[in-house]
Amino acid sequence: MQWNSKTLIFSFISLILIVLLSYNILVYFNFIKTNTNKTNYSILLTKNNFKSSYTPKINFSDRHISEINDVNLSILGRTSIPHIPMILKSQRYYIPLNFISEKLNYTVDNSSGSLIISNNSDKIFLTENSYEKNSKKGSLRGNLINYNNTFYISISDIEVIFDLIAVFNFENKKINLIPNDVKAPNESSSLYNHKIALIRFEDFGCGYSNIVDKNQTKIKIMSNLLYSNGMKFHVSWIPRFKVPLSNFDNDLLTKDDIINVGFVNVLDYMLNKGGEIGLHGYSHQSGNVASGTGEDMSKDTNSTEVETRAVIEKGIDTASALNIPISYYESPHYRATMDQKKIISNYFQFLYEHYDYSKKDNIYKTDDNHLFVPTPLGRISDTVKDTQRIIDKFNEGNPDVLKSFYYHPSTEIDYIDFETNDNKLNINYNPDSPLQRIVKTLKNNKYTSLHIDELIDK
């Protein structure tokens, strides 16, 4: 009788272990469920050992430097600042570190071999490509440049280090550096037992509305909204913007002007405010079709391996030359074929699109390294109906559908007005805008927004 009891207990435990093992194996090879109440969510994530097969042919360090003498700079309302030395590299303007520090009442100390700038309240440590301020560390977007034995710092890095915002005026070739009142969010960790959301700005290239100076500032205001609410987001970037029928071809590697400097400054600003950038094709077009309308990768477009690789590599080279970190790839209109997706997977660990149409509601894991991350909630086209539809999906909280959506920021700019009187950015941002309403919904429902490369087993 005693022996039979032990046998029964042993058999029962063995059965439980077999069931649990079988379940985990099935889940591991299926796509990840977003039931974020499960404590085992993190073990289903992809591994952190992916290495791209490609080394960029163009590097930021090798880009040329030129002197600029026709751009005016205003610092904290002081508009008559003569003879400011300025240089240009990779679509960024730079001014001497000593000059801006003095104007902002900081001192520069390089006596110990370490570069330190400080005032009564702040001490900032600088290296060639990083900064540390109030125990916060970050990467410099333009790096420090030693030009003619003088350290130069980019407008983008001046913004983040000194808590300023740069407002560009293209017509007058003027940049106004004014205080940035955006409040940093409380630090939060990415806990996978919380509800998660993914936000993506779509078709972001230097064309159409993004070549307007006021609209570039409005994108910064949108970034401030997300940043101040602790919302991480993505930017699907079109590196080269073409409208062939209008003879418009904006190649950021060859066309140096204040509009492109302003655009790269916006990319930098978004990165500093919680954005993460990915490649959305190279030109997002072919033939006479405009960027954003056509595609440069499909069964009929650049369909050979050589052509597909060329599209991907030109985008990577542009990002490398401009010192823009990229973390994912999204084929325009999701038109990449399965063969093209396999090629993309040689370059990128994360593909921000569904694996195929039978697996479009959740993350799909093809192997230990790659994730396909879809946008099941779709996009906002009709600002009333689609916004409410997405809000309803967040409220519904279906664990089998990834809470991921995308939005063209050109739509949001219509809800934003601003002026720069009295050395201040005065903003009128309609609280009924799609983005404002969605941010409010995410906060009310306690969603945690993640970057795509946080879906990884670290």
Walk me through this protein's architecture.
- The chain crosses the membrane at residues 7-29.
- Keywords: Membrane, Transmembrane, Transmembrane helix.
- InterPro entries: DUF2334, Glyco_hydro/deAcase_b/a-brl.
- This is Copper amine oxidase-like N-terminal domain-containing protein.
- It comes from Clostridium zeae.
- With 458 residues, the protein is α/β, with parallel strands linked by helices.
- It folds into two domains: 46-55 and 182-457, TIM Barrel (Alpha-Beta Barrel); 63-162, 2-Layer Sandwich (Copper Amine Oxidase, Chain A, domain 1), CATH 3.30.457.
- 28% of the residues lie in helices and 24% in strands.
- The chain is built from ten helices and 27 strands.
- The protein has helices spanning 2-28, 97-103, 155-162, 213-228, 258-272, 305-321, 338-347, 385-396, 409-412, 434-444, and strands at 46-47, 66-68, 72-75, 86-89, 92-96, 107-109, 115-118, 123-126, 130-133, 136-139, 145-147, 150-154, 164-169, 174-179, 195-205, 233-238, 240-243, 248-251, 275-279, 350-351, 364-365, 371-372, 404-407, 416-419, 426-429, 447-449, 456-457.
- A five-stranded antiparallel beta sheet has the order 2-4-5-12-11. Strands 6-7-8-9-10 form a five-stranded antiparallel beta sheet. Strands 15, 16, 19, 23 and 26 form a five-stranded parallel beta sheet that branches.
- α6 runs parallel beside α7 (338-347).
- The chain is globular.
- The protein starts with a helix and ends with a strand.
- Residues 19-43 have low confidence and may be disordered.
